[in-house]
Write a structure and sequence with these properties.
single chain; globular; alpha/beta; 269 residues; disordered N terminus
């Protein structure tokens, strides 16, 4: 989702009346985000991030890029006081509808609506690739965290999709062209250094890999090809042939996509 910068409010913003077209796009985006939360290993990775945050009773945490609110609900169930923050007004509206009474705000990762040193935890899952200046976002994380507060970053490196195909060279073109459409496609591999550069202590980085081998991965793969075609890196015929190969693999049980997810945690001094 596009998380380009805007000025955040200090209180929840009412949703605008929806038109049929905006309703359709909201439904599609919510379905895409929900699907991402269901990929193999996603639930376990979320739980791991909560443990890294040390979220629980008497802690206040922010979930940056909260989307439809899955992590907000799960963190709340652990007893934490949670603020869900997202720049996309559509997802703010969806999260509020799904989680009545939750604190969901439209907010900018570069200028969060919190006082200095007021939060125990900062979580950003699949967000930093969409920021033009991830370092500035982490400076803001430092500002809002108490000494000893934890920042947890999770994300994919958009240059690192591992895809089996009949045309490896074309696959490399697909992956790299899609990576070029996001502001910071390699932010995830920089998580550790970004935290160190922002002055965080006790920084630890790790990687978890999601392996997808069935038709559930097809929307992701066809989306990669469509984006690469739209950039001009592929012709329409090349994109069609590449997606036909992936569809055939899905039908015969031969699809393979491995998606490394990079996790890093640091402690505010």
């Amino acid at each position: 989702m596009d998380k380009s910068r805007t000025t955040p409010p200090t209180a929840p913003v009412p949703a605008s009346p929806a038109t049929p077209s905006t309703t359709s796009s909201t439904t599609a985006l919510a379905a895409l985000l929900d699907a991402a939360e269901r990929i193999p290993g996603a639930a376990a990775l979320r739980r791991h991030s909560y443990e890294l945050l040390r979220a629980g009773a008497d802690t206040t945490v922010v979930d940056i890029g909260c989307g439809t609110g899955t992590a907000v609900a799960e963190l709340s169930a652990r007893g934490a006081r949670v603020v869900g923050a997202d720049l996309d007004a559509r997802m703010v509206a969806v999260a509020r509808e799904r989680l009545p009474g939750a604190d969901i705000r439209r907010a900018d990762a570069y200028a969060l609506p919190f006082p200095d040193h007021s939060l125990h935890g900062y979580r950003a899952d699949k967000v930093f690739h969409a920021l033009a200046d991830p370092a500035a976002a982490l400076r803001e994380a430092r500002r809002v965290l108490i000494p000893g507060g934890r920042a947890v970053l999770i994300g994919q490196d958009w240059d690192t999709f591992v895809i089996d195909s009949d045309d490896p060279a074309l696959t490399r073109t697909v992956v790299h062209a899609r990576a070029g459409t996001v502001p910071s496609p390699r932010a995830a591999r920089r998580h550790r250094n970004l935290l160190l550069d922002a002055g965080f202590d006790d920084v630890v980085a790790e990687v978890r890999t999601a392996v997808l081998t069935d038709a559930a991965a097809l929307p992701m793969l066809t989306g990669l090809a469509a984006a690469a075609r739209d950039t001009g890196a592929l012709t329409a015929g090349e994109a069609s042939a590449w997606t036909a190969d992936q569809r055939a693999r899905a039908r015969t049980g031969r699809l393979f996509l491995a998606l490394p997810l990079f996790v890093a945690v640091g402690t505010a001094p």
